[in-house]
Amino acid sequence: MREVCDVHANLGVINHPELTGMDWFTSYFLSGKNFEQLAPKFVPHYPTLISKAAGILSQESVESIQRVFQEGKLKEVVEEIQEALQKSENAPLDVAVVGQSGSGKSSFINALLGLGHEEEGSAHVGVVPTTMKKTPYQHPKYPGVTFWDLPGTGTPNSLPYPYLETVGDEDYDFFIIISSSRFSSNDALLAQKIKEKGKNFYFVRTMVDVELHSEEKSKPISFKKERVLQQIRDDHLSILSNIRVSNPCVFLVSNFHPDKFDFPRLQETLLQDLPAHKRCTFVLQLSNLSDAFIEVKRVILKEKIWLNALKSAILAIIPFMAFFSGFDLPKQEKCLNLYRSYFGLDEQSVKEIAQKLGTSVQEIKSSTKSLDFWLFVKNDSIAAKAMKCAESFCSVNGGLRSFIFQFLKVYFLRLKFINTVADDVKMLLHKTLES
What we know:
Mean pLDDT: 79
């Protein structure tokens, strides 16, 4: 075991500041303890991997993995992890957006989709009410994510009791109730019906940028942005309390500036409130609108990296198995391309970024590190060759040496991929904002 760790130490893996995911079992192996003694550390360690928005595994999944881990049923551990990962990747997400006509519902949906008003697949936006019937909008990259633009209230064609029709029998994951002015008794009734169905709802006040601009123009000397925002928030909280909405929470947003005001806080709240297996789906569909959004993706995906590494490591205990199920170059390339897609650096997205920046795709590729896989993974160093020999030796024999080697390899490489892609995306985002 010591020689395996020596090789990884030469590559800077053991002391890598971000590789805390392996600390809990590395110390166990180096002290000579067996696999069964490793299992009890799984549950206490798992919370250290996840963000403050919580992880992608439910408590039930964590306890199930822990149980079969402790029983030494390695095949069941792999199956439990694989099932949890697949569940998080394939979970559908349906979001209902409802509010008064003209409140900016369609613009809000486009902001969530990351689409301009004139792009294909965007929600219809106009100066007159455009949503006359329930309309689904699928995410352009994640078809399992659907935003439902529900008919507004406050027009001659509105139903007398729209909240009954709106809630209906559809299985929405949550509701976003939008207003560009003041929330009404209709909104309170709708919230009550949603609550009766056991669903979450969130009050969103749009066009806050317009109100700030108007306030600053009318009171240029006394204007203070934060004070005005707090006044708007307090006013809406008071109104909702008066119409008997218990413990209301209002998010102030601008559909044209989704990186500002309460938009990031809204995203974080939605993430926290979703069931664990739907959090990954929600995070991946987020547009790269700010560094904060990019970091949320990075944290969620780092959790998946740890679980994938653990799964690969367990399989590697079987002699020769790493040759068949290991993290070889074709799988590494596929993994990097997947991460690029998650962060909006796929081929089509790179072309669009180049167009926005008024430059060539080749120029974009030359300024990034993650767009050329073979250049990215090329390493002819002696340490790299020694690691390859050590991997072959461990894979032939299987056991604990192969376990820890595969965990380190998979975890380190995937983490390197995701950090590089995220850093590239941040750099391009800053360039786009500057331009």
